[in-house]
TrEMBL record:
Pfam families for this protein: adh_short
Protein species of origin: Cellvibrio mixtus
UniProt-listed InterPro entries: NAD(P)-bd_dom_sf (IPR036291), SDR_fam (IPR002347)
Lineage: Bacteria, Pseudomonadati, Pseudomonadota, Gammaproteobacteria, Cellvibrionales
Protein name: Short-chain dehydrogenase
GO molecular function, one term: oxidoreductase activity
UniProt similarity note: Belongs to the short-chain dehydrogenases/reductases (SDR) family.
Highest taxon listed in the record's lineage: Bacteria
GO cellular component, one term: membrane
PANTHER family: DEHYDROGENASE/REDUCTASE SDR FAMILY MEMBER 7B, SHORT-CHAIN DEHYDROGENASE-RELATED
Keywords, sorted A to Z: Oxidoreductase
């Protein structure tokens, strides 16, 4: 990687060691963009960085950070500022989910989900958006979820956390637009990212049929961000579910979603 960082803009991807994070890194590397890959698992980050450098001849930085702690977020931001590294595009992708009844999960597990999905994302956005506003230039993509449109049985904390991400993104889209900063929410449905296994989620026949691959989901998010859109729901089936949520009473669409999700 080149040691010169002055006047170069970077794409920072959180949760870059798996799933959507890997695909975001690949698609931005294909554009020739310099990358900062952030996640907890150093070996996976270094392997991905080596692959991207070799295949696309781009600069790639690796930052092993546990974003569950806001102090770690602050430390990351400070290290990058000290090196005069300018983040032009922030992909807030890191997140954690868990399926099951709320009372069957420990309090620590639920709070850890909130720390990563809400507190960390808020801190990342606050610190890097301030830098972008000062330059009057920047892009932030918030990875929410189709579940952010409603409370979902056995995904109580996760769907609520993603609802925060979506509403937070919607508000900042309008707040920061005049400052030259674009904020867009990506709301994917079931995708083949390994999330289901990590969340111990049951894959129902319906979910298997509508499952999307990461490539088109990430491509839709990048295009929406570049176009300055407020949000995007990739995939026809997911769009239909979003419309159903808007057009029907809560008792109905939540009952439908419970069946879809195997609850």
């Amino acid at each position: 990687m080149s040691t010169s960082t002055k006047d170069k803009s970077w794409v920072l991807v959180t949760g870059a060691s798996s799933g959507f994070g890997v695909e975001f890194a690949k698609q931005y590397a294909a554009q020739g963009r310099s990358l900062i890959l952030v996640a907890r698992t150093l070996s996976k980050l270094e392997s991905l960085a080596a692959q991207l450098r070799k295949e696309f001849d781009v600069d790639v930085m690796v930052e092993q950070v546990d974003l569950s702690f806001v102090t770690a977020v602050k430390g990351l931001h400070q290290r990058l500022r000290e090196r005069n590294i300018l983040v032009d595009i922030l992909i807030n992708n890191a997140g954690h989910g868990l399926q099951g009844p709320f009372l069957d999960h420990s309090l620590d597990h639920s709070l850890a989900m909130i720390d990563l999905d809400i507190a960390s994302l808020t801190a990342m956005t606050r610190l890097f958006a301030e830098d972008m506003r000062a330059r009057r230039k920047g892009h932030i993509l918030m990875v929410a979820s189709l579940l952010s449109y409603q409370g979902v049985k056995n995904f109580a904390v996760y769907s609520a956390a993603k609802a925060y991400v979506l509403k937070f993104s919607d508000a900042l889209h309008r707040e920061l637009k005049g400052d030259g900063v674009v904020v867009t929410a990506l709301c994917p449905g079931m995708s083949d990212t390994g999330f289901a296994a990590e969340a111990k989620q049951e894959l129902t026949p319906v979910l298997r049929r509508i499952m999307m691959q990461p490539l088109p989901v990430v491509r839709a998010g990048i295009h929406a961000l570049q176009a300055g859109r407020m949000s995007v729901v990739p995939g026809f089936g997911n769009k239909a579910m979003a419309v159903l949520t808007w057009a029907t009473p809560r008792w109905l669409h939540q009952s439908i979603m419970a069946v879809v999700m195997g609850n």
